Amino acid sequence: MAGVQDQLEIKFRLTDGSDIGPKTFPAATSVATLKESILAQWPKEKENGPKTVKDVKLISAGKILENSRTLGDCRSPLCDIPGGVTTMHVVVQHQASEKEKKAANEPKQNKCSCVIL
User: Fold this and answer.
1) What's phi and psi for 4, nearest 5 deg?
2) How many other C-beta atoms are found inside a 10 Å radius of the C-beta of residue 10?
3) Exposed site from 63, 84, 99, 107, fewest CB < 10 Å?
4) Per the domain annotation, does 64 fall within a domain?
5) pLDDT in single tens digits along all 117 residues of the chain
6) What residues make up the domain containing 43?
7) Alpha-carbon distance 87 to 8, whole Å?
8) What's the CATH number where 86 sits?
9) Which of 99, 92, 94, 85 is nearest to 38 (CA)?
10) Contact 56, 90 (CB under 8 A)
11) How far is CA 28 from CA 3, 33, 34, 102, 110, in A?
């Protein structure tokens, strides 16, 4: 019996309303491993998919899940029904490149000029 309770069936809801899964994971699975699974199963026809684990945010029961936590740590007694499927929402946030970060931090130049006649 404990083996069944140590497994969670999860489907990942993408922003367009489509799903990846459901798939069964042990409660000891890390959030980072879930994200790697999402990367591997990401539909090829979808544009702007995540490139790395850092591009993926997982939300369950209204909370953003941290990579170092396990499914067991993130389990919500109010939302997780034994034998049911847990839905986690997937948000893709591409990380800014170093060039983009530098450009965002540079002071803006004033581009207006005055002409005195």
Assistant:
1) -70, -40
2) 22
3) 107
4) yes
5) 445 568 889 999 998 999 998 999 998 999 999 999 999 999 888 888 888 989 999 999 889 999 999 988 887 665 556 678 888 999 998 776 666 656 666 666 666 667 777
6) 2-96
7) 11
8) 3.10.20.90
9) 92
10) yes
11) 12, 10, 11, 39, 54
At 91, the amino acid letter reads V
Q: Which two tokens stand for residue 105?
A: 């931090």
Strand-pair category, 7-13 with 85-92: parallel
Which tokens go with 12? 């990942």
Query: How many domains does the chain fold into?
Result: 1
Q: How far apart are CA 50 and CA 98, in angstroms?
A: 18
Is residue 110 situated within a structural domain? no
Q: What one-character DSSP code corresponds to residue 96?
A: P
- Say how far apart CA 92 and CA 38 lie, in whole Å: 11
